Amino acid sequence: MDPEDLSSMPGYEGHIEYLGDKESEGTLRITDLRLSDSAGYRFRLITSGDKFAGSPVSLTVTDVVLEMVPTSVSESESVTLTCRTKCTLDPIAAFIWYKNGQPIPNSNTYSLVYSLFSVSSEDTGRYSCAVEGHEDLPSAEETLTVRYGPRNTSVSVSPSGEIVEGSSVTLTCSSDANPPADKYTWYKKNIASPKASGQSYSITNISSEDRVEYYCEASNSKGTETSIPVHINVMSVFPWVPVMGVGAVLTAGALLVIIYCTLKRRSTGGSDATTDTQSVHHDPNSDPYTGLNMRTMSPDYDTLANVRDSPSDTSPQRDTKPP
Questions:
Q1: pTM of the model
Q2: d(CA 230, CA 169)
Q3: Which three-class secondary structure state does DSSP give residue 58?
Q4: CATH class of the domain at 148-235
Q5: Per-residue pLDDT tens digits for 69-92
Q6: 178: how many CB neighbours lie within 10 A of its CB?
Q7: What are residue 188's DSSP bridge partners?
Q8: Residue 156 CB: number of other CB atoms within 10 A?
Q9: How far apart (Å, rounded) are the C-alpha atoms in residues 88 and 91?
Q10: Following CA atoms 293, 296, 297, 298 in sequence, which dihedral angle do they give, to the nearest 10 degrees?
Q11: Is the pLDDT of residue 44 over 90?
């Protein structure tokens, strides 16, 4: 049976590569080795007068395979990993175990079996193995799936903070579960009957009666968990509040006007009083009574003044009126 020319065989495009000048030397590179590449290989020289074939060389391709049983478990169950290879191994060869591409600490073992006991959600990931000394040839990865019930169940409120009476609010329930939670139930605190179902719960035209605590219950095939209650803070707004607001503004405006007018009146009244006071102080030079000088009206004025001013004169005053 004549050897087959790999360059003409289907499925080898991009899988083999000829190196060298193909005259004085030649090199064949096979990339991405497969089990089907196990065979005998030899080169053949073709000249103008004859053909010459070299001695065949045998290539055996082996692989490392990871077997995982089972690949999907519930928490607290166990998983067995087995690393298999067709290579002839040293009796004391060790195996290296990987999770998500990183070596598992303290996992090197001389046994081709590695067990995970009482798994948890943290054991979920991609696993592979390799033979020590051939870490560059690890097995293909197998994915372990761990099923568990809802955990870290919580409620978020949108919008957050105070909710104005008459507006709307939406509550959303979230949880970590595998498989994902497929049932959500909403409750008011201290009320046994459920209020609604679904991952989100909306309250429209909210009122003061809704100012209570709410919580949700998340469930899947593995279990159920209840969230911590959250309080809805509803701010009451009465119909007369806007009227009072307008009245307060008008009252404040009127008060300002009254204060201004009062201050203005006081200021104007003070200047008028000053003017009136000044008007009653007549100029002595212009007073029509200036001519009635008491000293010039009677020659006896000084005498009368002296008599009245003298304390020693106790005799009755005579009538000086001429007869």
A1: 0.55
A2: 13
A3: strand
A4: mainly beta
A5: 999 999 999 999 999 887 777 777
A6: 19
A7: 214
A8: 13
A9: 9
A10: 140
A11: no
